[in-house]
Structure formats: structure tokens, C-alpha cells
Amino acid sequence: MEYATGALGTLLPKLGQLLRDEYRLQKGAKKNIEDLTKELECIQAALRDVGEVPLDERSELLRIWARDAREMSYDMEDMVDTFLVRVQGPDERPSKRKVKRFFKKLWDDVTKAKIRRDIGQEINDIKERVKEVAERRARYKFDDITPAKTFSVDPRIAFLNTKATDLIGIDKAREEVITKLTKGDNNVLSAQQRIISIVGFGGLGKTTLAKAVYDKLKGPFDCTAFVSVGRNPDNIKNIFRNILIQLDKGRYEKFNFSIFDDEMQLINELRDFLGNKRYFIVIDDIWDTKAWKIIQLALVDNNSGSIIIITTRKYEVAQQAGGIYRLEPLSDDNSRKLFFARMYDGESKASNHQPDDEVSDKILKKCGDIPLAIITMASLLEGKHMEEWSEILNSIDFGSKENQQVEDTMKIISFSYYDLPPHLRICLLYLSVFPEDYFIEKDALIWMWIAEDFIVHKKQGIMSSFEIGERWFSELVNRSMIQLVEKWDEGSRILVHGCQVHDMVLDLICSISSEENFVTILDNKEGASSSSSSSPGKVYRLALHNNRIVESHMVGMGRVRSFISCDCDIDKGIPLSSFTLIRVLAIYNGVFGRKHRHLKHIQNLLHLRYLQLSGGEAELPEEIGNLKFLETLHVYRLLNAKVVSLLTQLRCLRLDLGNSVSATIFTDGIKLTSLEELEVCFGYHAFKSQEPWRRFVKELGSLKELKVLRLGSCNAFSMEVQIDLVESLRSLGKMEHLSLHAYWSSSADTATWEAAGFRLPRHIRYLLLNGINFSGFPSFCINRLCLPNLSHLSLSVDAIEEQELQILGQLPELRFLDLKVESTAEIMVCSAATTDPAGDGGRFFKKLRHCTLNPWEVLLLPSKDGVSFRMRRVHATVLLGSEWNGVSSGKGLAAALMPRVHKLSFKVFSVREFKDENHGDGLCLEYFASLQNINVKIYIDDASDAEVEVKEVEASLQRAARVHPNHPLVETVRYNAPMFPEWKAWAASRQAHEAEVEQQQDDEQAGSSARD
């Protein structure tokens, strides 16, 4: 579906479906449908053209016509869907009495005949409406109307000539790019051609960064050029002409370019000119891989040490060009510096004018560390008293057009939006149903897209609708329209994938959604609707944010397709009986502990496809089986789980059953054979015995379509249940995500699992086995040959050998590792400098981004060849940066440890030992070259840990972050948790031993001195 064309994208296939013999429509109705289809295809094409024109460039007539055409398409689809629902109808329980069955069938036939007559009349009515819309289009000659474009200057030009010295934080990025260009050879350029692709969100300063690098390095080159391509290059010839003029102005400024008939001749001219010259060319703001391929043809690789830099918002363009450099948002500190430097004319003057107050924090948070937004906001506040800032902040909406500077900023952001293909635009617009800063779970979002028919499932296609949704989600991430977020739930030990929307992007899509009547938002700002252009009573998607339902606001909701409630008190206020056409019903985080009391009419919502109830207990009526189109069910604390078995068409089922007795969920076996995703959390009293638990696990093997399985249990997984589970998993060949979590640790014999035939599909990406403690590392199934696509692993083992640790390090796609080892012996050294057996000279853990080693002591061992690490259980203290064998850290290292790790998590159980054992400001964290976040849990023994020592540990971590090139964010959390007696005994024993060794060394030194 495309938002610009309304429901036409899904309506047209449904009209074709009505022509099938099985619906037995009258001949006249079929003829009308055929005529309608032809006219609607033309309207769809016209609406698609309208959608390519930015809102501010459309005439009022065009906007009104497009709105009416879209609303007509929604009404038509509602009519067709209602017919399909009524014809299919709810299943009745089979009757054993023949007479009753006969009269029931007779009544159904009569009823369906009447339904067919009704739809025939409705098609006649809608045909007249389509005719009127088409005639209006012809009457006003919309096809001949071109938007009256006012003279407009690209707002980015104002920022292009900004001095690099005026932009805080650009020095670091500039030096990083130069280092990539020179490969760290003391800024000496080699003869090899170098290409760098600077990629990032609009407004980050990609052009400014490229200009800073260009200005610093261009001196020794034979010729240079800095050209901008733009989103819609009118003529690729003009780009080549501009390059040639900048390369040699004297030769080409008055050159007659008309002699070149086509692009290839210009390419040859440029190649001939470059010849053996050493050139430096920047191709700025390129949006299309096709355009890059053409431009690249002209940039000859002459082995003269030439440099090419491109800037782009699209990751696929950067991938095509190579040499990717991701430009990240500013740090919080640099954002504050930039803001006040702009406010007070320079960084030096700003140092005395930086109030650390709530208002300035809100201002910077609104800007989201985007330099363009910060500069815009500073210009708005310049000259204003700080007392006025709060009022100005509340009045600013990045989606409004009341201020030229704000409008220019949003124009730059909107370029990225209008570059999206239509199917991604509608998916992005749908995110406006969520509040600011909301964590949006990826899987739930994709199922919503499917329920709204944004993704049409094609059975004959290679990819499922969910897989298509995953691809679209990734595209939005790669285009920097949404920010990927991974949340690790410590309680459930589950990794949750999702996204957040940058404030500026959210303002943009909320503005467009309102203008196009795509989403209506009721929030706590006077309870008003954000929709401004809808017809009376035409609300299609309703979002409720931080609000109580006001009955007067809920009138005229008969057309609602999606209702999303976030953090609202809606105990009795939802008029479910009026939501007759609703597809998506999601209630997030209602009043916890309270029972949902608004479900009285839910069985009558026959169009419902997605149902989510969280925050309170829920009891679904048995008539829920009437919902034959329901595909996704997600309920927190479902009290009567047995009704789930009535929904045999479900594709996604998520249940948290709490402490209810749940053995009756699938009394007759799991009949939900269409399930692609299953998540069930069982409470302590879920099963009265092992037998129903085993029966449930065995039944999992019948779910052949299952791709995601998450099982949580407050009880341990017995060995019998484990074996049953292994047997079921062998049947699930489509599995991509397996998550098992036992809140009470369950011992697992690795040899038994191997003997039972435990194997996982090669395409599995997520394997999270929490609370199942293996006796040994299961290398028979976890290795780079068996699981080449594994990206996330959570594993607990009794012991692991060095070779097995290296097997982990060789997993080619591993990005997330949560490793828990119970052994008490000192073991394992894994060298990051060791060549990997694949023969590519790479390091271990090449793609790892998040590492949790728990509860281990980790010592980094620097040497002249690289850095390795030793792990041992000891008493669960993590030590970083200890000197080892007299080799100090940071000297002449050839390799980094875990080169892509962004987040490192560990625990400190012995404050005093951490303080005493670690030396040097860096704590060896510099070996984690990509480090961005350090998460440390400090367990404090009230009896022995002094407050001053705890503060020293925290200070040492902050000091290490300051000296690290990336200045990673350090998060420390204190826990009052006295050490276990055995740990205390171990610590005392170790301290006594170390004191004895130290005394012995002193005695030897004293004896040596005496002999001398």
C-alpha cells in the first residue's frame, strides 16, 4: 500500500477476487466491477503522481481532489472487506442433529444471497462516486497543472561555507577521515586511489566534514573539484561539465560542451583530462547508485594517489562506492558546546554562558545532537533572555512553517522523506502513532504493517510478508530515518530489537500525517486532534498519548482502522462497539494490575487482525473465535488461555500467563499450524506436573512454519523436557530465532544434547539460551560451519577451553555475546593477534559490538604483537588493564581487541581489588577501538567497602573514558550486595598469598642488596 494512493493498492486485487466464481455475484455486478477497476487504475496512477509532489508545492484544488479520491478508496475497501467478512462468517460448532444442520445451511444460503444483492447495490452507488471523482479530475485538468514553484535556494548552501573551526567536534571526524585516507601512515598519501564514503542522517554535517578534509588536503594535488549532485540531478552531463570546469577553469569555463552528443563522450573527455594527474574530487550529496556508477566510470584509477570523497544519506550508495565512514551525531558535551558557541559568538566566549538547567537540556534534547538543528535553534534564541527560552521552546514545532529557519531545516530533512519509495513512506508515516522517545518494538511494528495491508502477502513469492517487513525496516534504518535500538531485558534475559524516531523526523511525519489525514493524535495538549484536513467523521488511524479518554473526542470513529493507546487510562472509555472496521487494536502500558474492562464487544470486531493488550490482566470471551482474520495476538496476563486454540489462523502469538494454571492452553494439541512466531511465558503454577509441560514441548514440533520461538518458564527445564525440546527443534527447519529462559537454572548435559541430535538450521541468527547451564561448550553445533549467520548468542556453560573460546571468536557474523561460565579454575587466553584459521589474517570477534562476560575476571594482556585477554572465574571481579609479565599497556600494538565492540558490560564485586590491581588512566580500554558505552555494576560490601574507594573506582572508569579516543559513555550502578562468605574467604586467602609473595620478593631484594 502507498499512502498517496489511499487504499487503491490493496483494493484493486480485492475487486479481482470478487470476480471469482466462488462468490457467485450477479452478472451486472461483475460488469460494474470490471468497469470500476479500469477507472480506479487511472485514479491510482494520478494519485501516485500527486504523491511525488511535496505538500507545499501542491495547489489547493489538487490537495482537495487527492483527499477525496483517497477517502473514496478507503470507503470502497471497507465495503469490500465487509462483504468478504459477512460471506465467510464465524464458524459454528457442528451439530449432531441432521435437521438442525439442514435448516442452518438453508438459512446461511438465504443470508448470503441477500448479502450478494446488497453488495451489487453498493457497487452501483460507488460507481457513481468514482465517476464524479474522475469527471472532476478532467474538469479542472489536474494533469496539466504543474506546481507553481517559487524561487527557492537550497537551504544547505547557507551551511556549506561555514568555517570548520566554527563547528564543534568536527576536528575529530576530520582527522578520522584523513587517517582512513592515509591508513595512518603519518598523513602520507600512497599512490593507490582512495575512496571515502561519508554517510549519515540529513543535517549531521556530511558536506561540512567533506569540505574540511578537502580544504586541508587539496594543496599538493594537480587538480581538484567539489561538486554537488542532489536528489534529482536534471542532467548527468551538467555534473561532468561542473567537474571539468572546476578541474581546469581556464580551459573549460567557455568550452562548447554542446559538441558532446551523449554522456559517454563527456566521460571520455574527463578520463582523458585526468590521465595521469593526481586529483582530489568530492562528489557531494549523491542519492542514487545508478548516478554513482556513471560518475565512477569517469574517475580513472591511474595509480597516482588520487582521492575521491562522496557524501550520501543512503547506505546502499556508500556500500557501492566503498570506504564507508558513518558520521555520528554529536556527543552531548559537544552539542552543548556548539549550541552556546552559536549563541555567544564563539566557543571561548560561550564557556562562561553555559547554564546547566532543565530548559537548555530540553532544547538540546529536541535537537537530538544534530548540528543543523542545534544551529537553527541557537539562531532562534539568539538575543533572547534565558527567561524567554522555555516559552519559545514550547512554541517551536519542527513540523510547522511559522519560522523560516525552522522551515529551512525541515526542508533539508524532508529531502530524505521524499526520496523514499512509496511503500517505505507509508511505513514511516505509521510511526507517528507513537509518542516522542517511544521504544517501538520491531516485530510488533512489522505485524502492524501487515495488519494494515501495507505489506501484501503473496503466497507464490519467495519471501513471506514478515520477511519483506524486516527488509523494509532495515531500509529505513540504513536511510537514517529511524534509529535502531537493542534493549537487553535483564529480568527475562531477552534481547528486544526496535527503533526510535528522531524528534525532527517525528515532527515531520506527524505534520504530513495530519495534512494528509493519515493519523489523528489525541494527546494531553488540550486533548485536541492533530488532524487538520480530514473530512468530518473521517478518522482512519487514532492514537491516544498520555491522556484520559474524553467521550466527546470519540464521536464519529466508525472508520477507524488502527487504534493505538500509549500510557493512557482507558479503563472504560474505548467505544469498541463503534470500531466496526478496526484492523489494529493496541493498548500499551495501561494501568498495571488492573483488569482490562473494555473487551465487552471485542468478538464483534470482525475485521480485527492485530490485538495487543498490555499492562493489565485480560479475559477474552469465548466468541473470540469469530475473529477469522486475527493474525497477531499479544496479551499480558491472559487469564483464560484456552480460548487461544479457537484462533487457528494466528501467525503470531505472544502470551504472558503469569501464575495462572496454563496446562489447558492446548488440550487437544497445538492446532495453530500457521504460527510463524510464538512467545509464551509460564508462571510457577503453570503446570501441575511434568507431563503437560512435556506434552506442550512435544507439540511444538508440529509448528512447521515457526521462525521465532521464545519460551520462558519460572520452573527449571528438566532433562526429560530438554530431550523433548531437542526432538521438536529438529522438525523446525525454518527457525531463525530461538530464545529459552528458565528463571531457575537448569543443568544440561552437553553430551546428552549431542546424542539426542541437537541441531539448528544454518540460517538461525539468534540463539539465546538463558538459565540452561551446559556442562561443556556445545562446539558440535555452535561453530562457524554450522551457524554461519549467527549474530546474537547468549550461553551459559560450566567450563570452556581456550580452543572453544576461539571457536566463538571465529563466528563470522557474531555481534552480541552474553557469556556466562561457572568454572572456578584459571583458564583461557585468547589472543587477538592470532591469525584466524580461515586464512584471512583477521582477528577473533571481528564483528562483535556488545560483549557481556559474566561473572568473569578479565585481564587484558598487551604485547608488542597485539593484545590478548585472559578470563577466569575467581570471585566475579572484572579487572581491566592490569600489567602482566612486566609489559605495560598502550605501547606499539599491532592489533585491537574485539575491533567493533560498541558496548562492554561487566561487574565489579571487589571494589578494593579493582582499585588496587588496575594501573594507568586507560585501563586498557583503548584496545576496544570502537567502544561507545561502558556499563558497570558495582556490588558494594557495606562491611569493607569505603565510600571513598567506590568513588575512586567510578573516577577511574570516567578517567579511562576521557582518555579513550571515542570518549565512551560510562554508566555505573551501585548495588548493596555483601560478598558471599566463600568469596570473602577466597579474597582473604588471595590477599594473604599476595602479601606473602610480596614479602618474599622484598626479602630477596634485601638479600641481594646486602651481598652487593
UniProtKB/TrEMBL annotation:
The Disease resistance protein winged helix domain, residue ranges: 433-509
Keywords per UniProt: Coiled coil, Leucine-rich repeat, Nucleotide-binding, Plant defense, Repeat
UniProt region (Disordered), positions on chain: 991-1012
Pfam families tied to this protein: LRR_14, NB-ARC, Rx_N, WHD_DRP
Superkingdom assignment: Eukaryota
Domain Disease resistance R13L4/SHOC-2-like LRR span(s) in chain numbering: 560-969
Gene Ontology molecular functions: ADP binding
Keyword Nucleotide-binding: yes
Any coiled-coil regions, as ranges: 26-53
Positions of the Disease resistance N-terminal domain: 7-98
Domain annotation NB-ARC: ranges: 173-343
GO biological process: defense response to bacterium; innate immune response-activating signaling pathway; plant-type hypersensitive response
Residues that span the membrane, as ranges: none
Assigned protein family: Belongs to the disease resistance NB-LRR family.
Name recorded for this polypeptide: Uncharacterized protein
Species this protein is from: Panicum virgatum
